[in-house]
Amino acid sequence: MTPDKKNERFERLALPHLDAAYSLARWLTGDDFAAQDVVQTAYVRAFRFFDQFRDDNPRAWILTIVRRTFYSSLREQYQQQEHIDFDAALHSGAEQLGGASAFAVGNQPEDIAAGRDMQRIINAGLDTLPYIFREVVVLKDLEDLSYKEIAEVVEVPIGTVMSRLARGRKLLGAFLQKNGIGAGNEL
Fold first, then answer.
1. Which spans in the chain are helix H?
2. For residue 96, what pLDDT band results from cuts at 50, 70 and 90?
3. CA–CA separation, 169 vs 136, rounded Å?
4. Cα(178)–Cα(187) distance, rounded to whole angstroms?
5. Does residue 164 belong to any structural domain of this protein?
6. Which domain holds residue 173?
7. pLDDT tens per residue, range 101-110
8. Cα distance between residue 134 and residue 148, in whole Å
C-alpha cells in the first residue's frame, strides 16, 4: 500500500473515533494534558501498525490501543498494581438504589444549576472508581459500546465485562447515594 493510500485509509477509518479515544483517555488519566498525550501516542502506534488492521471494527481497535497505551504509561510511571478491596456490605444486595428520577433535569435555572452540580458529583464518583471498573462504565455508559466491543477493548471475556460493569455501577451508585443522589434523595 502506498503511503498516500495508507494516510487516506487511516484518516477515513481512525480519525472519526478521536473524540471517543480522548474521552476514554480522559476518564482513565483524570487529566486533560495526560489524556492528550495518551491519545497522541496511541494514534502514532495505530498508524505505525495500521497495515495489520483488517477493517472489522476501527472504533474498538482504536480504543484498545488507547487503553493499552494508558496502562503502558501507568506501568512505566508507577510499577505497582492497584489493590481492590471487597466490600461485603456493598455487594450483599441489601442496598437498593433509587430510580432515575433524580437525574431528570428541567429547563429552569435552578434545575440547570442542580444538573451541573450533579454532573460534578457523577464525575467525582467516576474518578473514585478503580481503573478496571471505570473503563467499562465509561465505555458502556458514556461511549455506548456493546458488551462484545468492550470485551475486545479491555481484552477480557464478556462475562468479566458484565461483572466489572455491575460492580462499577454499584460502586458509583453507592458514591452517588452517599452524596445525596438516588434512593429518593435530590441534590
1. 3-13, 18-29, 32-48, 58-78, 109-128, 131-137, 147-154, 158-178
2. very low
3. 9
4. 11
5. yes
6. 100-178
7. 334 444 555 5
8. 17
